[in-house]
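Hi there, hope your week has been kind to you so far. For a while now I've been wondering how a particular protein folds. I'm sending you its amino acid sequence along with the backbone structure tokens. Could you read through the record and tell me how the tokens relate to the sequence? Take your time with it, there's no hurry, and the full record follows here.
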Amino acid sequence: MTRRFLNAVLCDIFDRAHDPELGGLRLSSVVAVLLEHLEEAGLLSEPHVSYFRFERGSISAEVHGWAMDVEDDVLRLFACIDATSETALGDEAEPVTLPKEQVDRAFRRLGSFVRNALAGKFDGVEESQPVADLVRVIHAAKAQNQVLELHLVTTGIVSDRTAASLGDNELRHEIWDLTRLFRVCGASADGSITINFEERFGQTLPCLVNAPDHDGVQVLLTRVPGKMLAEIYNDYRSALLERNVRSFLQFNGKVNKGIRDTLKTAPHRFLPYNNGLSTTASSAVLVNAQDGTAQIQSLSDFQIVNGGQTTASIAAAWRRDRVDLSHVVVPMKLTVVPAERLQGLVPQISKYANTQNRIQEADFFANSPWHIALERLSRGTWTGATAGAPRGTRWFYERSRGQYADELAAHGTPAGRRKFRAENPGLQKFTKTDLAKFWLSWDQLPHVVSLGAQKCFGRFMETVTPRRPEPDETEFRRIVALGILFKRAESLYGEMGFTGYRAQVITYTIARLSHHLGKRLPIEDIWRAQALPEDLVSALRLVITGVRAVLLQPPAGRNLTEWCKKADCWDAVRNRNFDIELPRADSSASASEQELVVTDALTPAQQRSIAAVAAISGEVWMSISSWAKQTSSLLPWQRGLAYSIGRLIEQSRTPSVKQAKQGGILLQEAVRQGFRHDALTSQLIAALSGSMLEL
């Protein structure tokens, strides 16, 4: 299984090998893929590839990536060892054990980077390089007493002896070799976590056994040592919560603060104070102890459906606060559900078990029918013949990680694999987090996309799929058109010679283009050609240049990646006039050809608010802006918004919900302060006031 996982990873690396953002470096491709696997498994949040090597005099330093963990308040820095650099696509790779000297050298160079960064040796790095942002992040982390950790990711295997020899260091060292990556990422790809407590921890869990009911469901009651639970969470993180899908809320609620206080001051009271966990599994292996009591030896498909915050709080206290968990015991109810009933019954258990903190219905999106339908469409929808693919191709939607590699491996011969790749090009593979990026960028939420893949996908599931019917072929073509737009923008970024901050620039570029085009694209033209029209490509070049110039000048020297996560950043990009002409959708084209409706469904109140604002002429809005400037009335951003709304209406375009809401507020404030215009009748003001009261 480890070998199969390795070859799936190599397949992903091959698809990333020519990504211009990674500078053509295979090592950067390896880092990108391995960190994405860890992010998908919920072990990292918003990882960054940041290759930097420095050799001068006695200084020998190197770093390959980083991720800030807000849950544990930890900055993780990554070095990578590629143990498969000689493996060609299609060849079966064998796992390689790394020599101790190679592991030691990687950690030594990574530690040197941290020390020299803190000493100011790299403060003069070119601002456009990603490592410049990392240097600032390291300084900020140190100033805020955040924990710094050194991590090694590798496609090789590190022996237990080598790992144990790391010993105690000033900075925590952690290794993610092929064996561990498979355990925490390969298993979580299909939501399956198997834990053998006896092999892993040298002990079993005593339990009370209830007989199975008529359909095979059985409930066991047990208790779990706190340190064991923390170690399990440290390995699997959100993969343990796949059927709960509940993010850790940090220590900001009464439940979490109480847990933390109990762990610190009265750990022996944790069992009586805490309600414990509600968990599920598809099977449990029970053995009898010498005294005849039943013991849980291992569990398959293990999931925590209630108690995710309890688990994360214990793990955070153990890692961050170094709390002694030797006296902590956590009660646990385990429901054993036959494998064939997991998908139907476990979400219900999760729904009714979650009472400590409010859970939204959108949280229960594992194996969503919407995504299953999209996956089915992707396997059965072929593009037309193009110059590059005379027989047509498919866009492969990877609903769960590893599906593409599994189907590729199923074609056992080299000829079969070549045929599969010809029909399903690697560049036309997209994941559920890619889908969320495409969609929310076009939906003009680049600051949400900039929060990272998992948070972006969470927002997509909360706001998009609950309000839309299952996708049909027309919807699939629209999604592919967005994918073509997004991927072409990414490739242009490298072709134009730009490096660093590509993710932020591209999502803001797509959003800015969407804003100008009124969310309209020539969908059918893009689908037929499997490419963008030339005028749209030219426009992308101009927008990329303008957006990048704005983003590279964050206010007051703020961290660029953090600035891009703010709605104010989107306001700055959206309101900036780049003095460029962008193509507009042909008003004579049919709606099916030009409109890409990927917005949330508007409520009737929102529709009335937009209609009320749009009923006021562009001349009135322009006059408000001019009057406010002459009289120093309203806030500067309100003056700018009045002008923007006026331009939109003059161009027969519709304001957004947010623009309509703020526009209504500023107009009423302008009238209150004395603004008058012949075209602004009392009826229009009354209609606007009424619509604002509904919001």
Summary: The first helix runs from residue 2 to 16. The two ends are 55 Å apart (CA to CA). Residues 244-255, 355-366, 585-601 have pLDDT under 50 and may be disordered.
